[in-house]
Amino acid sequence: MPQNVDPQDEGFEEELGAVLRRTGNGFAVDDRRELVAGGLRRGRRRLVRRRLAVTGGALALAAVGIGGVYGGSLLSLVGGSEQVSVAGPQPTTDSAGPAAGEPVMPQIPVEELAAVLKAHTPAGTWEIDNLGGTGQSVRGVYDDGEGKAGVTVGLFRAGDTAESGEGQVTCPSEADVPHDDCTSEPLPNGSRLMVFQGYEYPDRREETKHWRAVLLTKDGFLIDASAYNAAAEKGAEISRENPPFTPAQMKALVTADAWTPFLNQLVTEPDMKKRGDTQLPPAPSGPAIRATLRSLLPESLTVADMDAPYGHAYLVVDDGEGRGLVSVTVQPSAEQLRGVLFGGADVVTLPDGRKVRTIKQPGGQGGAGVVRWTVDTITPKGFRVSVSAYNSKGQYEDATRAEPVLTTDQLKAIALSPAWQKLPLK
C-alpha cells in the first residue's frame, strides 16, 4: 500500500479491499459507504449506506479504520447502535434457514409496505420493486407527471431506547456534508424527526438530489424515507429539478401511524445478540473527543461549526485569515493498522515508542485548491490519534486560504497530547 495514503482520503478506497483482507482476515467491501458481510440482507445494508451517505465520505473511510482495528467485532453506525458484522470468516449457510449468526429478517409483505407508501404520498404512478416479496423496506419509482423519482422507505430497529438512534436524526455538519437544508426536532409524542435536503454525492460530481426524512420513535424504531430527483439514487439521468415530495410531505410519510403495526415485527437488539452479534469495543464518545480537540486548539482560533460522530470530531475554526476544517480520529485499539499505516520510511519513532507520520497531500474530495495536512500517531499499545487540518471550511469546499489553519507542529502537539488517553471509554 502506498505510504502516503491516508485512511480518510478519497484515493484510499482503491486500496481498501486489499487492506481489509490483509488486516481483517477476510473482510470485503462492495461500496465505501457499505461495509457489510455477505450474510446480511438488503434492509440492514441500506441503513448502513443511508447513514454513511449523510455522514460524509471521509467519515465513511475513517470508519473503515474502525473495521480494520476491531477485527471480529462490528462496524457501528455513527451515533446509533444498528450494527453489522464486517469480519471474516464468512458465515456458513444452512439450507434450512439463514446463515449461522445471521438475524432472521422480518417477513413483512412488500405489497403491504407499498400500500402504506402509496396512501401517504401525492397521487401518481408507481413501479414497485419485488412487489411479491417480503422484507422490511420498499423501493420504487414514482411519477407524478413531472419526471420519475426513486423513492425508498425502510423500517429498522435502532436499539432498545430512542437514545440508541440519536445519531440517525442529528443533522450533519455543513463542513462535513454540504447540504441545502436540514432540520431536527422533537415531536410531542416523544419521537424525534430529521428532514435532510442534500445530494447523493456531497462533492456534487452528479446533481442527483437526495431528500431524506427519518423518524426515531420513543421505543427506538427508525422509519427512514429517501427521495431523489432521478429514477435511481445512482446512475440515472436527472429527471426533475427536485425530488417529488416537499419536506412537509416527507414528514407526513414517516410519521404516518400506518407504519406502527409493522414495527414490532423487526428484529430486536437482544435477539441480535443471542444470534452471536457483539458490541464494538469501548471508545471515547464523539462529544468528548470534540471537547478535547477544542481545548487543545490555540486560543486565538474561534470556532464556527462543529460535529462529533462516533470516534471522531470536526471543528471549523478561524484565525482571522480564513476558515479551515480540523478533524480528529481516535481509535483506542488500532494495533491491526500498525503495519498498514506506520511501516514506511516517513514514520518517526519517538523515545517512548510512539510512531508518528506527517502527511501533506491534496484534499481529495473535489474542492478547488484544497490541501490537507495530517499527523497520524500510534502508541506501543495501539492507541491511535490522527489529526488533520484543511485550508478550506469543508472537505468539498474550495480553498479559503493558502495553507491549512494549523501547522504540522501544532497538529503534532495535538495528536501527541496525553489528554486523549484520559478520555472515558463508552
TrEMBL record:
Keywords: Membrane, Transmembrane, Transmembrane helix. The chain crosses the membrane at residues 52-75. Residues 162-189 are annotated as: Disordered. It comes from the Bacteria. This is Uncharacterized protein.
